[in-house]
Design goal:
- Two copies of one chain form a homodimer.
- With 335 residues, chain A is an alpha/beta fold.
- Chain A folds into three domains: 52 residues, Orthogonal Bundle (434 Repressor (Amino-terminal Domain)), CATH 1.10.260; 128 residues, Rossmann fold, CATH 3.40.50; 130 residues, Rossmann fold, CATH 3.40.50.2300.
- In chain A, 43% of the residues lie in helices and 16% in strands.
- Chain A is built from twelve helices and twelve strands.
- Chain A has a six-stranded parallel beta sheet with strand order 2-1-3-4-5-11, sandwiched between helices. Chain A has a four-stranded parallel beta sheet with strand order 7-6-8-9, with helices on both faces.
- In chain A, helix 5 links the parallel strand 1 and strand 2.
- In chain A, helix 1 crosses helix 3 and helix 8 packs across helix 9.
- The longest helix of chain A has 17 residues.
- Chain B binds a DNA duplex (16 and 16 nucleotides) through helix 2 and helix 4.
DNA sequence: CTGAAAGCGCTAACAC
DNA sequence: GTGTTAGCGCTTTCAG
């Protein structure tokens, strides 16, 4: 075995008695090489354990074949599923995932530095919040970007989003069947764009339908915050008839808190709805009424858009909105 | 703005009136440049929007600064936490994560091709199963690798693992307090090394302590498989006194199935234990007795080992085993 | 401390 | 169809 140093296309060429570019051609699909040379090259390449060096290729083709995927810690609980889909679907398009996790605003500068230096072909941002000046940088550096699960008002960015409005409308309609007199909206954190959007839509719709008794609390999307919020609220206030949570995880927290510490029956005395359709929302012990996001299709849309913009630098920005599915669970009374 | 093409170190050099290597030096930390040149270069670089091209750097330094992280779909439910930790801790060591997801054995060939061509500095495999010949390839290609949550008998590979034996010993001791007469071991899938290890350890320990009535069922680590297995079992058999699940998710499934369809009380009539300590195992409605994996420390160990082997090619293979924490939940009766 | 020069391993014209 | 040649953008000796 030739293990002492990395074997290059030159080494293979010499050994096979062909030119270096012949070797290169053999390993670039779709280039015309005679079967004879191809076989000869392949044979010696295998013998020598040769693998083309993607780095060198990137340098010359100016395509890294890598897509930066940014995951913020504020991401929904369904992000593992999303990430796995993203990885799978990008792989199918012959792109690799360069993963970045974003903890707090502090890391953003560094993150962007990395993105530029690594010459990624594109960026998919999962539920992260970026200032609009940040988004402008992508354009300056000519790096296509798709925001997943975000709805940016000014339509200069590619976005893919679940239809929050329609979803929340359906959830509220479901709640209305029981004619609730008081609502509690349990919002996600204010630094999450998705949370803000869901909250505002809910408040807006409730207002439009003339509801007077609507209160808002702020959690941070976690189970514990769901528990804490409702516990805190019930210390000084009567139980609301309906609780509208910005995600399933908080809804689960609410349900557990009620079960443990309060003599309130869900759904008979109180209705709870969530959002996302995460795996545990379907578990027997919770069975939350929620909107299931069409994750696979959302990711497909995101990947399609990104590839389109990578291949065609001046295609116009696009926003795609997909509709989720109402899941009628047992956290809202059914007649 | 100089936006028409990527600006290179030559462009900056020309503009700043210095040599190209001067620019290079400025952007390589720890190299001696006079403050005057440094300032001048920095200023024009910023003005022109210059960013060093990491690809070119990789080509010459033969270090990509990337670590391949392989996630298999068989990974435990705690993988999001693990992945997030891995990403964070590698970032702290100035490495980027190139993420690969592995669905089935079919993709392995392709995966390995990618790993070689992308010249990654190292590999962390999360709960994936590789044949030993595969592992040998890493050595041939001189790519350091750390297996996370695997215990390979032949000690020629770097591994980091939670102490399954001690954990399961503790869980069984906890169960013993109620003097169970019959055990059901609910194993994960046979193509998961972790699952096999946990099952065998449990069976072994039970045998050693003289238990006669021990049955085994095979799930696939999912919630639904937990439900299905126990439901199937109870159709034809009496309820076991103790159920030992290979992960928390299946334990949750067991609990939910029992709650919905059987008149059996947990923990009074039946005890259930899990493994992993995933977030939902602590939820009020489950509170599983389980072993919480020390994820942060496990990842730290993995990353430390990997970096060590990247920097020091001939450090010897190492296996680190960390001990988990027994969580005394409510799925086992407490006296 | 600085600049000149030689590549890293490969791709992409371009002749033959 | 194949070989020759000129780089991609950077790091790294090596003189000065």
């Amino acid at each position: 075995m030739y293990k002492n140093k990395k074997v290059t296309s030159y080494d293979v060429a010499r050994e096979a008695g062909v030119s270096q570019s012949a070797v290169s051609r053999v390993f670039r699909p779709g280039l015309s090489v005679s079967k004879k040379t191809r076989d000869k090259v392949m044979a010696t390449a295998n013998k020598m354990g040769y693998r083309p060096n993607a780095i060198a290729r990137m340098l010359i083709t100016k395509q890294s074949g890598m897509v930066a995927v940014i995951v913020s810690s504020r991401a929904n609980e369904n992000y593992p599923e999303v990430l796995s889909q993203v990885s799978k679907q990008l792989a199918a398009r012959n792109k690799r995932v360069l993963l970045f996790t974003l903890d707090d605003a502090a890391g953003v500068d560094d993150l962007f530095e990395q993105i530029w230096t690594f010459q990624v072909d594109g960026v998919i941002a999962l539920a992260a919040h970026f200032e609009s000046q940040r988004l402008a940088q992508f354009e300056q550096h000519k790096v296509p970007v798709v925001l997943y699960n975000r709805n940016v008002p000014d339509a200069s960015t590619n976005t893919v989003c679940c239809n929050h409005e329609q979803g929340i409308k359906q959830l509220l309609a479901e709640l209305k069947l029981n004619n609730p007199q008081s609502y509690l909206v349990l919002s996600g954190p204010v630094d999450s764009d998705v949370a803000n959007e869901r909250r505002e839509i809910a408040l807006d719709l409730l207002k439009k339908s003339g509801e007077k008794n609507v209160q808002v609390l702020y959690g941070d999307y976690t189970y514990q915050s769901g528990r804490d919020c409702i516990a805190q609220w019930l210390k000084k206030n009567p139980a609301p008839d309906a609780v509208v949570c910005s995600n399933d995880t908080m809804a689960i927290g609410v349900i557990d808190e009620i079960r443990e510490n309060h003599n309130i029956h869900i759904p008979n005395d109180m209705s709870v709805v969530g959002f996302d359709g995460i795996a545990s929302s379907f578990w027997q012990s919770y069975q939350i009424t929620t909107i299931k996001q069409p994750v696979e299709q959302l990711v497909k849309a995101a990947v399609d858009m990104l590839i389109e913009h990578i291949e065609n630098a001046d295609s116009p920005p696009e926003a795609r909105v997909l509709t989720g599915t109402l899941i009628k669970g047992n956290s809202v009374k059914r007649s």
